[in-house]
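Notes, p. 3: input format for complexes.
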Amino acid sequence: MLMLENLWNVIENEIQNSHNINMLNQIKIKYLGKNGVFNNYMKNLKSFSFEEKKKFSTIINKVKKKTIFSINIKTTELSKIILKKRVEKEKIDISLPGRYVKNGSIHPINHSIKFIKNFFYTLGFQSINGLEIEDEYHNFNALNIPKNHPARDNHDTFWFDENRLLRTQTSNMQIRIMKSNKPPMRFIFPGKVYRNDYDSTHTPMFHQVEGLIVEKNINFSHLKWIIYNFIFNFFNKKISLRFRPSYFPFTTPSSEVDIMIDSKKWLEILGCGMVHPLVLKNVNIDAKIYSACAFGLGVERITMLRYGISDIRSFFENDLRFIEQFKHI
Ligand code: DAH
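Output follows (329 residues plus 3,4-dihydroxyphenylalanine):
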């Protein structure tokens, strides 16, 4: 039985000298496994007398219990060491300064269009982008600008062929939408327009937002209210504004709107008016029942005024130093 008494010391020694979970598993198999040392001891007891069996099996079970307990403790110990090593290896230094994340920014023109859309959404308008390749009928004729009309001279048009062109104004959408919808309606049409022009205040492509209301009792005073409120909102202050009588073939009466800049100069920012009865006739809207008002706004122009930009071309030169200035607007 000396052997048995020594056994615990041997096992404990082995357990304490194991450096990893794998070694511990080997010990487990060796002693506690099906063919392990403890089971073999038990098998060997068969030939012993009843009293001896009782005595030795008690000792064997005691050592076995101690072994299980010790292996469990060692397993926890080793797991803790493993975890500690892993944490040390994977630790990150949270005191390091953050790293710069390069980020794009919204183009100031898109920013303005977004602002304009949001303003008009609150007044119940829907927004539609519309076509840029247009035909002569929707861009000119249906808007009461027939061939040889002097108003065509202001639109240095890019023609694809005798009929198709790059739209010179978002007013083309007035025709398309009034033809395909039944009044009442409130729409804005933001988008690109094209004219063959290039200097510090003109680019061959620029943006307009067209507005259109067709309702039963809409009149010029509603138009006036909307434009005043839009301008005050866009510039975030009450600025001097005037409606100046003007002429557009597709509206009557027509007006241009100027705002005062630098306390001395009037600058035109949009055209507007009551939609001409001939235009309403072209789209089969009964002018005796419905009236319509419209406006067309140059997005570059008001964006330049809002941010003090002096050359319209800077919007389209893709100079990051310019564009990045609008990161936080
Ligand atoms: N389409 C005109 C232009 O490009 C602007 C305009 C004026 C639009 C009067 C309108 C309007 O809807 O009623 O010059």
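Residues 169, 171, 210, 248, 251, 271-273, 294-296 surround 3,4-dihydroxyphenylalanine (CB under 6 Å).
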